[in-house]
Specification:
By secondary structure, the chain is α/β, with parallel strands linked by helices. It folds into 2 domains: about 270 residues, Glycogen Phosphorylase B (Rossmann fold, 3-Layer(aba) Sandwich), CATH 3.40.50.2000; about 180 residues, 3-Layer(aba) Sandwich (Rossmann fold), CATH 3.40.50.2000. The protein has 18 helices and 15 strands. The strands form 3 sheets. It has a 7-stranded parallel sheet, sandwiched between helices. A hairpin with a 2-residue loop joins β1 and β2. α3 packs parallel to α4, α5 runs parallel beside α8 and α16 crosses α17. It is globular, with a radius of gyration of 22 Å. Bound molecules: uridine-5'-diphosphate.
Length: about 475
């Protein structure tokens, strides 16, 4: 584990006002892929001397005992329940609205308690526009945290243009057409969710961009060597400063913000395998597959003869009772070279020397975590920004390949072999190792992300 950078004295003194630590207030969107970077940001700011107050929903609430140095303020949220991904956009839109008035009361009490001058700002997830609006009404400066890539943020900004020019809604016949206004995307790589005609997603993305444009700055979990062109584009198109301070998990003290309990026994299990021999398979915290795809995936992995560690999360298979997920006999037959867990300590797994490839859904956190460990990827994107991330992995950074089309065991087998045992996979691994080095440079002393953090801290002091 790379040690987090030691905050400089200047940074520390920036966090102190009138002899008291200044407060940064945070409000994460309550989904795993959004919670993790927000808690990493909290760790980073705390290490730089700021006191941290986390506002959070009851839905997917954090385990406060794991963060004894922070203050937590629960905000009633209208009691949402886990929903299918097709309904998640509506749920996210409703969540912000449901929290709005309770958040206003709680923020007002916190401001009374801390004194206005002691509060540096509120950092909220871009998908929580009502939270930004409340903060503005109470004169609290805001910063927007976008937990996806810079390229994805640019596609959010471009969404109205993509409709005007007819790229969206996606027409089946145009899926492979290049989006000339937004290279390297093809139509099929644009952020969409399910069969939505763009109405709800368009609303979500437009609100996210309003949150960015009305804030005092945008924080991105990315780094210069990975997305320089994309960040330059955002700086050109946005009037607010952009702080590319990623990869946050490499810059902040280790923290466990998992909603599910990771099965750590897999780390010991990995110890028995030679370097770069095991395929790690995980589709993140939200993506779901059909029972048929699960079966094809299982037999494809089995047929590849490659050792594997597979995360089969509760609820990952659509419409299937949890104890009937994998084909009968699969786990017993695979015991010698495979392990299935319900949730893994992913960052540590990817850092393990035995792991040689990652079959991922290409959520942005997973993509970054893989890149930072020099692990090449098999990409199977499902929704949202995942298709765009997969496009960058395969086409721009050339550190992986997409498993497209219908999942079928023979194709799965072939794709796994290409990544894990073929020369082509070795070349991808070599490129991934270069990216790992580039990430280490950006996060090292004088690196671009460290400079961006210094700028962010100075910015926080000026608010
Ligand atoms: N993760 C984990 N254990 C698992 C699977 C995922 O700790 O078994 C973490 C992973 O390290 C990442 C996050 O969950 O930080 C998933 O975020 P991502 O953006 O990749 O995908 P999402 O879950 O939002 O689709």
């Amino acid at each position: 584990m790379t040690p987090p950078p030691a905050p400089t004295m200047a940074a520390h003194s920036n966090a102190v006002h009138g002899g008291r630590r200044r407060h940064v207030l945070l409000f994460p969107l309550p989904y795993q892929g959004h919670i993790n970077p927000m808690f990493r940001l909290a760790g980073l700011l705390h290490a730089h001397g700021f006191a941290i107050t986390v506002f959070h929903t009851h839905f997917n609430a954090p385990d406060t005992a794991r963060h004894p140095d922070y203050r937590f303020v629960p905000v009633p949220d209208g009691s949402p329940v886990p929903v299918a991904i097709e309904d998640a956009v509506a749920q996210i839109l409703e969540l912000g609205v449901a929290c709005e008035s309770a958040f206003r009361d709680r923020l007002a009490s916190v401001l009374d308690e801390y004194s206005r001058d002691d509060v540096a700002c509120l950092v909220a997830d871009t998908h929580l526009l009502p939270i930004f609006e409340v903060a503005a009404r109470l004169s609290v400066p805001t910063l927007a945290l976008r937990t996806g890539s810079a390229a994805c943020c640019a596609s959010f900004l471009a969404y109205p243009m993509l409709f005007e020019k007819g790229y969206l809604p996606v027409q089946e016949s145009q899926r492979d057409m290049p989006v000339v206004d937004l290279p390297p995307y093809r139509v099929r790589d644009l952020p969409v969710i399910g069969e939505d005609d763009g109405g709800l997603v368009r609303e979500l993305l437009s609100r996210a961009m309003t949150a960015v444009k009305t804030s005092s700055g945008l924080i991105l979990n990315t780094f210069d060597a990975l997305e320089r062109r994309e960040q330059d584009g955002l700086r050109r198109d946005l009037a607010v400063p952009v702080f590319d301070i990623g990869p946050l998990h490499k810059l902040s003290p280790a923290v466990d913000s998992s909603l599910l309990l990771p099965d750590r026994s897999c780390l010991e299990w990995l110890d028995a395998f030679p370097p770069e021999s095991v395929l790690y398979v995980s589709f993140g915290s939200v993506a779901c597959m059909s029972p048929r795809d699960l079966v094809e995936t299982a037999w494809g992995i089995a047929g590849s003869d490659v050792p594997f560690l597979w995360v089969v999360r509760p609820g990952m298979v659509r419409g299937s009772a949890d104890d009937h997920r994998l084909p009968e006999g699969f786990e017993a037959a695979m015991r010698k070279r495979g392990m299935v867990v319900a949730w893994a300590p992913q960052e540590e797994v990817l850092r393990h020397r035995a792991v040689g490839g990652f079959w991922t859904h290409c959520g942005w956190n997973s993509t970054l975590e893989s890149v930072c460990e020099g692990v090449p990827m098999l990409c199977r994107p499902y929704f949202g920004d995942q298709m765009g991330n997969a496009r960058y992995v395969e086409h721009v950074w050339r550190v992986g390949l997409e498993v497209g089309g219908d999942l079928e065991r023979g194709r799965v087998e072939a794709a796994i072999r290409r990544l894990m045992t073929d020369e082509e996979g070795a070349e991808m691994r070599a490129r991934a190792c270069e990216l790992k080095k580039a990430a280490a440079e950006c996060t090292g002393e004088g690196g671009s992300s460290r400079l961006a953090i210094d700028k962010l801290i100075t910015h926080l002091t000026s608010l």
